[in-house]
Amino acid sequence: MIDENEAKIVVRIFTEYVSGRSTRDIAADLTRQGLPSPGATRHKNKAGRTTWNHQCITGGRHGRGIIGNELYIGEIHWNVRSTILNPETQKKQKRRNPEDRHIIVKKPELRIVPQVLWDRAQKVRSGRAIHMFGPTGKPRRRPVIPRNNEHPLAGVLRCGVCNGNMRIAQSSRNGAPRAACANAHQRGTCEHTRSFDMDVLLEDVSSKMELRLLSPKAIEEAMRAWKEERKTSEKEQRTRKFRA
Predict the structure, then answer these.
(1) Comparing 226 with 44, which gets the higher pLDDT?
(2) Residue of 226, 205, 222, 225 whose CA lies nearest to 214
């Protein structure tokens, strides 16, 4: 069934997208107006799901997003992807099936977006992809950019403006990863749009850690803590012998 309130938001996104607005600007406006996000739809029992991520418009896990969701033109696509088990990691992964294995069911009563608006949106999306990534319209994978959870500073960087998480958002010209505020980069809810070279940050953190850990005061505190721990351990050993 079509939710009329959500359908209005979908049509609005398509309309603003074809007018030339960026996905970040669209998401930021939806967030400022407190409109329910796709997360609110999936988790109706959780309040406060009104923060929009710009990736849900054209990105997402499989690169479709709202703009590429054929359900909005009354088409249900089945058997598009298969789930396989990676024999090395033992984790499930999704793989796209060949086009001839896809099953498309027409449901015109489910259409939300007019065909003309849909076609214009796909044309805009294709043009933006070619402009950003070249003739193929697909991003080039850069193996030098680590995943967020593989970097030594993963999970410890915070934005100095909103105190939100920092994430690897882009890369420098030399291919080095750069961190940016997730709220600013993805949701448009923070004004701190500057990004930082992760290699430079790591070098700075390492030098400061070395300076602090090797200072006379740090060594003295470490020795005192070691002695206290040793005394506690010896006391516990004597207690165990006495009980035995």
Answers:
(1) 226
(2) 222
